[in-house]
Amino acid sequence: MKKSILTGAGLLLILTGCTNITTEQQSVEQTMESGEMQHEENMDMNHGDMEGMEEHMDHDNIPPLQASKGTQELVIPPLLEKQKESDFDYEVVAQEGTTQFFDGSPTNTYGYNGNLLGPTLQLKEGETVKVKVRNELNEPTTFHWHGLEVPGTEDGGPSDVIQPGESKIVTLKADQPAATLWYHPHPHKSTAEQVFKGLAGMLYVEETDEEAPALPHTYGVDDIPLIFQDRLFDENKQLDYKNLMNSDGTIGDVSLVNGTINPKLTVTKPLMRFRILNGANARNYTFRLSNGATFTQIASDGGLLHEPVEMDEITLSPSERAEILIDFSAMESDEPIAITDEEGNALLPFDLDIDGGTEEMESISWTDDTTFLKEEEKSLPVSKKIELFGMMDKVTINGKKFDPERIDLRQKKGVSEVWEVYNKPDEMGGMIHPFHIHGTQFKIILRDGREPAPNEQGLKDSVLIEPGERVRLLVTFPEEGIYMYHCHILEHEDNGMMGQVEVY
Ligand SMILES: [Cu+2]
């Protein structure tokens, strides 16, 4: 069978490619000191004296998303084309534009190389490219490559500001397994607004190993990016962030997929691969299929899972990704099928128009002889403790708010350490914080003392942490530099729920 695939050395390499483990007791102890909790001091929250509590979103009462009417074919972001005869390979321009979401009322939006969102940038595993980034906005921005393990100088964090009208060339080396990553702005205190207005794009690291599983990979045909976002529009159909924003995370009732309102997707192949990004500022999504069918998750944030996992739903917090396969061959074309949210609202209805094809779900499998985590990785001591706490503008990490002048943690390049991240509940129970670390793809060792679910046994750069939950991560930085770690509720990030780790 053409598509039959089994593992081989390629995948094994991917899954074991995780650096040398050295405990380095001395540096660990130093780190413990510098990362020490200070939560009881200045920033600890007393709800009695919190201002603006009434604005705090009741997180059990999230405004529901409107179901898609299925009136527009899903927009597939174009592939970013390589420059010819130029001293850089790609150009990404942040610019203003307008988008026609509603009849007769154009909405002012931001986009990369266009009006809304951005083109998909494809890098091959191991490839090095030069990307010219240019800021045509009327405000400063940065270009952050989320999930890409590049040196701190290329990472596009808040210190790497590109002023209006300016540009620079960054060098991106995709020295990591094939994965679905993304890019977005990261300017301090305006990330949420710039993403809300439309800045985000997909960044793929593409498989080059011929031994690797032969997954559907025809872009826009059987390999589809899906950027899920919710948006709130004002009465003039504008994304007036300053008036619409909620400091605890701006949540809207309008569902966009790849920037398309009321989308549907015409499916032409029996076996489809979807690369799902939760690109929302703050909303968590749980995705299901409307007909109750299962699907197969094949990848998490940083690449293929240890093995494919059959799922009937998947939850993604902001910035998390999942690649899934849906087998449409057994589904009736007259039965309505959609990707829904947890309320059953159809976010992406499918029209089946399958032209045949030979792909079979059964042929897509792989097994791996190695364990997801080695014994010596599991038994490493915790060397960095992170405590997430607060809500609205009172959010902190280890009792502190972001200070660009302060290095919070230090870690040696190539040395694995265990970060324990605790989401400290408050009197109201607390809320989910998606925790993201730049410059690394980590593994989840334990969730509250338990092994991670099979669909989290893969590389991750963002992790959903429930209130009261304690998550242990095996973190290794392959490059040097200063990297952010932060809550990926973008308003929390802008409110200072962010720290810096220096990798040396
Ligand atoms: Cu948060």
UniProtKB/TrEMBL annotation:
Classification via Gene3D superfamilies: Cupredoxins - blue copper proteins
Q: Which PROSITE patterns match?
A: MULTICOPPER_OXIDASE1, MULTICOPPER_OXIDASE2, PROKAR_LIPOPROTEIN
Keyword terms of this UniProt record: Metal-binding, Oxidoreductase
CDD domains per the UniProt record, alphabetical: CuRO_1_CueO_FtsP, CuRO_2_CueO_FtsP, CuRO_3_CueO_FtsP
Which Pfam families does this one have?
A: Cu-oxidase, Cu-oxidase_2, Cu-oxidase_3
What superkingdom heads the lineage?
Bacteria
Query: Sorted alphabetically, which InterPro entries does this protein's record hold?
Result: Cu-oxidase-like_N, Cu-oxidase_2nd, Cu-oxidase_C, Cu-oxidase_fam, Cu_oxidase_CS, Cu_oxidase_Cu_BS, Cupredoxin
Q: Which GO terms describe its molecular function?
A: copper ion binding; oxidoreductase activity
Q: Which family does it belong to?
A: Belongs to the multicopper oxidase family.
Matches recorded under PANTHER family: BILIRUBIN OXIDASE (PTHR48267:SF1), CUPREDOXIN SUPERFAMILY PROTEIN (PTHR48267)
Q: Protein name, please?
A: Multicopper oxidase mco
Gene field: mco_1
